[in-house]
Design brief:
Structural class of chain A: mainly beta
Radius of gyration of chain A: 14 Å
Helix content of chain A: under 10%
Strand content of chain A: over 45%
Radius of gyration of chain B: 13 Å
Shape of chain A: globular
Distance between the termini of chain A: 39 Å
Number of helices of chain A: 0
Strand content of chain B: over 45%
Largest interface: A-B, 25 and 25 residues
Largest sheet of chain B: 7 strands, mixed
Mean pLDDT of chain B: 96
Oligomer: heterodimer
Chain lengths: 123, 107
């Protein structure tokens, strides 16, 4: 069974860069046909998709966050990472990592998720 | 951006009940709609994709329907483990977007 686990700082100062890592077990992030994504949920609000990265390393992001986001893969450790710069209080959220695949009609489906890591932006 | 609106935001029901949760997209998304279940402190779980296809291992009491802008998740014969938050997600266009969730509570 595939498992994903987020790790990173629980507290980030305003204007700093958030770095989160998702460790994957039970499967390889190098497997073709899968994307690896990040989704966040601010307290009391809905889920927001941040971006996906393909097993090849190509990534695509939510246009609202694109100028501040970077995702990467570390295949040797079977991990993928998120960096989000210029953090503000509005970025306070639970951050989930997830695996995604596409159906024959190119629909993106998030089939395995991590339980999430709470990140608070505060000085 | 496509906005996903779920209703109701909260719902009380009893074990054995049949419940329906609605999800409406701000524009047509064909059948590009997924449903997830989340319980506090746990990873979200995929229930249904492409509007009506049951994910492997998900009980058959869950079903989904709809296309275009209006979609429904139905649970027939609620079980104690079904009391959770449910949310929909569209993948018709980027940015992928989610509904705010429906909190299904025990009556």
């Amino acid at each position: 069974q595939l498992q994903l686990q987020e790790s990173g700082p629980g507290l980030v100062k305003p204007s700093e860069t958030l770095s989160l890592t998702c460790s994957v077990s039970g499967g390889s992030i190098s497997t073709s046909n899968y994307y690896w994504g990040w989704i966040r949920q601010p307290p009391g609000k809905g889920l927001e998709w941040i971006g996906n990265i393909y097993h090849s390393g190509s990534a695509f992001y939510n246009p609202a966050l694109k100028s501040r986001v970077a995702m990467s893969l570390d295949t040797s450790r079977n991990q993928f990472s998120l960096k989000l710069n210029s953090m503000t209080a509005a970025d306070t959220a639970v951050y989930h990592c997830a695996r995604a695949w596409t159906t024959v009609l190119s629909q993106v489906v998030f089939d395995f998720w991590g339980q999430g890591a709470m990140v608070t932006v505060s000085s | 951006d496509i906005r996903m609106t779920q209703s109701p935001s909260s719902l009380s029901a009893s074990v054995g009940d049949r419940v329906t949760i609605s999800c409406r997209a701000s524009q047509s998304i064909a059948g590009y709609l997924n449903w997830y279940q989340q319980t506090p402190g746990r990873a979200p779980k995929l229930l249904i994709y492409t509007a009506s296809t049951l994910q492997g291992g998900v009980p058959s009491r869950f079903s989904g329907s709809g296309s275009g802008t209006d979609f429904t998740l139905t649970i027939n014969g609620l079980q104690p483990e079904d009391f959770a938050t449910y949310f929909c997600q569209q993948s018709y266009s980027i940015p992928y977007s989610f509904g705010r969730g429906t909190n299904l509570k025990i009556k």
